[in-house]
Amino acid sequence: MSIRFFDETGNFNLIDEKYVKRWITAVITSRNMTVGNINYLFCDDKYLIQVNRQYLNHDTYTDIITFDYVVGSLVSGDILISVERVKENASILDLSFEEEMLRVLIHGVLHLLGQEDKTEKDAREMRSMENESIGLWREMFHEKQLS
User: Among 28, 77, 78, 145, which is least packed by CB within 10 angstroms?
Assistant: First the structure.
């Protein structure tokens, strides 16, 4: 079982992968689930909108698409992230790129854990869970504070 990161853009380097893997594992296990195979693909808008059109019949830009392969308590899936969207959203929200990337990374995991975000209530719950997870990041890696 593993958490793996792939870069389709050719020029994206995730902040410390080792720490991100430990954090994601901690979030999953804190919900009494087990890490299966989770693959992250970092891509650009063009790549992600093609996937969005082909597999979800959506013709919109997005920062993340999550494909859920969870079986029982084994958390597996493919999570595609547009680095361009994350950068733009970080700028709009006046956040560091690193914080917004962590938020999106865990957003996909929370979907795999069953959290939806289609309704306003679900979206508030998702944001709360994201904030809780970012808090866990800060607790685990206080020396790696987000800028």
Answer: 145
pLDDT tens digits for range 120-129: 999 999 999 9
| Full 3-state SS string of the chain | CEEEEEECCCCCCCCCHHHHHHHHHHHHHCCCCEEEEEEEEEECHHHHHHHHHHHHCCCCCCCEEEEECCECCEEEEEEEEEHHHHHHHHHHHCCCHHHHHHHHHHHHHHHHCCCCCCCHHHHHHHHHHHHHHHHHHHHHCHHHCCC
Report the CATH number at residue 58: 3.40.390.30
Write the pLDDT tens digit of every residue in 27-46. Answer: 999 999 999 999 999 999 99
Domain that includes residue 120, residue range:
2-144
Q: What is the mean pLDDT of residues 54-66?
A: 94
CA 127 – CA 123 distance, rounded (Å): 6
What is the residue-averaged pLDDT of the chain? 95
Q: What is the pLDDT of residue 145?
A: 61
Domain count for the chain, please give it: 1
